[in-house]
Design a protein that fits this description.
Chain lengths: ~500, ~325
């Protein structure tokens, strides 16, 4: 028996390194070093896998109870949640972020990276004590959302109210700042700490070993992968990842409106090339998320600020050639949005969107859009959260909200594990998180994907619906009914 | 390795009148007999420093009673010990911690029994107020797990902050449990495994426990009344006893023995001698006789298809009891 935790761990890890040495084996892919330790390496893109060399057997691995890989919004929310939990207050938590620490101050200029935080996220942030801090910095409530369609009269609105807004528009930097500044001191955050490889155990009898690019090794009882779309943790888990890139880019920008108004409505218009959304930031500023084909995006990015503003106003205001056959399809299609955005849509009054006077110079940027979903979120001593687990089209503004939902449920699962006296890396516990989250995330993703597919398909309605298959058609009953009567009559 | 003693199904059905054993391999049955002798005179080999030591003399080298060695137990006339029952578990060393192996149902039972114990100790005021909302709600409590086997139940209790003594009649189990505990510092520092029966332990232990638990053990012992009586001696007044067991009814036989052992091969055949199942009424009576007030009796059902346990009102097959020793 060993007197202290530290030495126990050191001996364990050096034994492991010895066995590594003995069995040799470099190369990428999957290498088995011992019965209980299946070593896989994976960095960003999985491309770093080859370069991972075994840690020197003399280097003692630091041990943490939980290591979060990736300090984006979701990683920091997880760190905050773990740090605030009374049940997990005795755990040593480390967050590793590959990027440098940014000194940030709230400036009068708005950032072009903004997310609509939904009420579920607001609830989580309130319980973490960060919501008030966000409001104190800068957040714009969205009391109404109007979604309409370019080629028909179809329109749908989502109504919130003063007490329960539909969402809040918050700059990503503000969210990050609020989370970072309120991280409890016993949670350690390390910047410039890019991970180059993960060794994951086959079961809980051994721990996870993390190798940083600077050669340092760290061991942990639970690795949480919050390292974004090209997750190295996911690559190391070797889980199947279903996904594809859309032939679309998302253009973001900060917009100046023609006159100050209440500006608490989020506007989204669907064009044949994709949706364009104006999201309120302040009385006279809005944030743009314009999803469009890669070709159009390239063109739009090359325009001068003035020409871009004109193109945008046309996209919002222009009448497209109307197709009566499309009308009913579009109405049904818009109803599908309700499965993603669960607010009442009693409002029938069509409001007019604001007109844009200019785009804030150099606020334009573009992002590739895609869909992706990890078949498993967990393995022994590992869990994926946020974009590392799922990626979604921004048309419903749900991406980071799904990630924050992961944080809430993973926290709940870990607290439950503590109360059952289980090892927090026990995959039987983690599996509960996976089961709960996949059910929710898949439902949202399926609806968003159906929305996207239905909309961007160029096939005429009947062909389109047939090709979508029966299950998708069942999702959109109103459309199905119209099509049936259309087909019969 | 796990099916050393293969019971003849006919013998089983005859309800013990014509019980006979078919040894799967001869040497083991002899081992079992030799080990029985050892167990009777055996002295715990685990000291606070974790060094192995063997002695047949009781000594008071340790300040903490729970680490004290057991004295020779020959003077105990009646014993809860049944070698053929304990032998069933001796050779399970490989499988105690295989979560998909023979002990799978015991692992998944933790959800129910750990919750029951934690909530029971919190609600009856035994758990200390200052810890109950924290990371280790059972901090400061001393718990004895009688028949602890590989330590499947001791480990979570230790993680919850309790000082746990795992007592088992089979030295093999004590060894497996000890080795496994060393894998996790949170467990290692809070658990101590001791070889012996509860009578032996009662003789040497000076202190008393906040709670005693015997989970899936009662159906393997002789003289359940002696077992409970001895537990009563070492539970503090106001302390708790937790028991989970299989009920002695036809339902229990069909449900637990036939299905689990034979049809589904979940447990090595012969694990449960259905003659030893203690009926709920009998158990409650024994508890009352020994100064316990029953706080809760609940049925448990196991679904082998998803390996999950559920609380059910029906106590016909498996049940759990929480009783409190009168102050
Ligand atoms: C145009 C656009 C608009 C969007 N609008 C919305 C919206 O309105 N509402 C909404 O909910 N969502 C929206 N999203 C989605 C949202 O931005 C993402 O879901 C969210 O940013 C994901 O956060 P994350 O923390 O999971 O990942 P990321 O933000 O990608 O963070 C991952 C972090 O991990 C770090 N990292 C990666 N690899 C390593 C490594 N090997 N070692 C150490 N660190 C590493 C990275 O440096 C990074 O900081 C939008 C997305 C786009 C593209
Ligand atoms: C079914 S196992 C239960 C193990 C543990 N309680 C659990 O649930 O994980 C029964 C255990 O009781 C032990 N045992 C049987 N009779 C005993 C006795 N008289 N005294 C102490 N232990 C005994 C056996 O050695 C075996 O490990």
């Amino acid at each position: 028996m060993l007197p202290s935790l530290g030495i126990g761990r050191i001996i364990k890890s050096s034994i492991r390194h010895v066995s590594r040495k003995r069995r040799g084996g470099g190369g990428g892919g999957v290498v088995l070093f011992s019965r209980s330790l299946c070593v896989r390496t994976g960095g960003d893109n999985g491309s770093d896998a080859e370069s991972t060399s075994p840690p020197p057997s003399t280097a003692a691995a630091d041990h943490y109870d939980v290591v979060i890989s990736g300090g984006g919004m979701v990683g920091f929310a997880m760190a905050s949640a773990l740090g605030k939990s009374a049940r997990l207050s005795d755990r040593r938590v480390l967050l590793l972020e590959g990027g440098a620490e940014r000194v940030w101050d709230l400036s009068p200029d708005y950032s072009n990276r903004v997310c609509a935080l939904n009420p579920t996220t607001q609830h989580l942030f309130t319980s973490l004590g960060v919501w008030q801090h966000i409001l104190d910095m800068r957040a714009q409530p969205v009391k109404r959302m109007q979604v309409w369609e370019a080629c028909s009269e179809a329109m749908i609105t989502f109504e919130g109210d003063e007490e329960r807004p539909v969402a809040h528009m918050v700059e990503n930097d503000v969210t990050l700042q609020a989370l970072k500044s309120l991280i409890p001191s016993h949670v350690q955050v390390e910047y410039n700490s890019r991970v180059s490889g993960y060794q994951l155990p086959q079961d809980t009898s051994s721990t996870v070993t993390i190798t940083l690019q600077n050669g340092r090794t760290i061991s942990t009882d639970l690795l949480i992968g919050a390292d974004g779309v090209r997750s190295g943790v996911r690559a190391a888990m070797g889980v199947q990842y279903l996904g594809w890139e859309y032939d679309q880019m998302g253009i973001v920008a900060t917009l100046e409106l023609s006159e100050p108004t209440d500006n608490t409505v989020a506007w989204q218009r669907f064009l044949p090339t994709g949706p364009v959304a104006l999201l309120p930031l302040s009385e006279d500023k809005s944030s743009l998320v314009w999803s469009t084909t890669k070709k159009t995006a390239q063109h739009l990015l090359s325009l001068s600020d003035e020409d871009f503003t004109d193109a945008l106003n046309r996209a919002i205001w222009d009448d497209k050639p109307r197709d009566a056959r499309l009308e009913s399809l579009h109405k049904g299609w818009l109803r599908l949005l309700e499965t993603v955005l669960p607010w009442t849509n009693e409002g029938v009054v069509r409001q007019l969107p604001p007109s844009v006077t200019s785009v804030i110079p150099s606020s334009r940027a573009s992002f590739p859009l895609g869909l992706g979903h990890a078949v498993h979120y967990v393995a022994p001593r590992v869990a994926l959260i946020g974009d590392a687990a799922h990626r979604i089209h921004p048309l419903a503004g749900q991406g980071v909200n799904l990630g924050f939902g992961d944080v809430a449920i993973l926290l709940e699962t870990l607290e439950k594990a503590v109360l059952l006296g289980a090892d927090i890396g026990d995959e039987r516990m983690l599996y509960e998180y996976e089961r709960g989250r996949q059910r929710h995330n898949m439902a949202t993703m399926t609806s968003v994907e159906a929305l996207y597919r239905l909309y961007t398909s160029e096939a005429p309605p009947l062909v389109l619906l047939r090709s979508l298959g029966l299950s998708a058609v069942n999702l959109i009953t109103p459309v199905k009914e119209r099509i049936m009567s259309h087909a019969n009559g | 390795m796990t099916t050393i003693l293969r019971r003849n199904l006919t013998g089983m059905l005859l309800g013990g009148v014509h019980r006979f054993w078919v040894p799967a391999s001869q040497p083991h049955i002899y081992n079992a007999i030799i080990l029985k002798k050892e167990a009777a005179t055996y002295v715990t080999r685990v000291t606070p420093q974790g060094e192995s030591s063997e002695s047949t003399q009781s000594s008071s080298s340790s300040s903490d009673d729970i680490f004290n060695k057991h004295s020779n137990s020959d003077k105990t006339e009646r014993s809860t010990y049944v070698e053929e029952e304990v032998a069933k578990f001796r050779y399970m060393s490989d499988s105690w911690w295989d979560i998909n192996g023979d002990c799978k149902p015991l692992h998944s039972l933790n959800r129910l029994r750990v919750s029951l114990m934690r909530e029971g100790l919190v609600q009856c005021g035994t758990a200390k107020m200052e810890y109950i909302s924290g990371p280790q709600p059972l901090t400061g409590l001393k718990i004895l797990d009688v028949g602890s086997g590989g330590g499947i139940l001791c480990e979570p209790l230790a993680r919850l902050g309790a000082k746990v003594v795992g007592l088992d009649a089979a030295e093999e189990n004590v060894n497996v449990a000890q080795l496994h505990a060393e894998q996790d510092p949170r467990v290692q520092h809070n658990v101590q495994y001791v070889c012996g029966t509860v009578e032996e332990h009662a003789e040497v232990t000076k202190d008393q426990y906040d709670a005693v638990v015997a989970s899936e053990v009662l159906e393997h012992v002789n003289h359940p009344d002696l077992f409970i009586q001895t537990c009563a001696q070492i539970v503090k007044p106001g302390g708790s006893i937790f028991l989970t067991t299989l009920n002695k009814t036809v339902g229990a036989w069909v449900g637990a023995v036939a299905i689990a052992e034979y049809a589904l091969h979940l447990l090595p055949p012969g694990t449960h001698d259905w003659n030893k199942f203690v009926p709920r009424q009998e158990l409650l009576f024994i508890l009352e006789k020994n100064g316990f007030v029953t706080r809760m009796v609940h049925g448990m059902a196991y679904n082998p298809l998803n390996n999950e346990w559920y609380w059910i009102p029906n106590t016909a097959i498996n049940y759990a009891v929480h009783a409190i020793k009168e102050s």
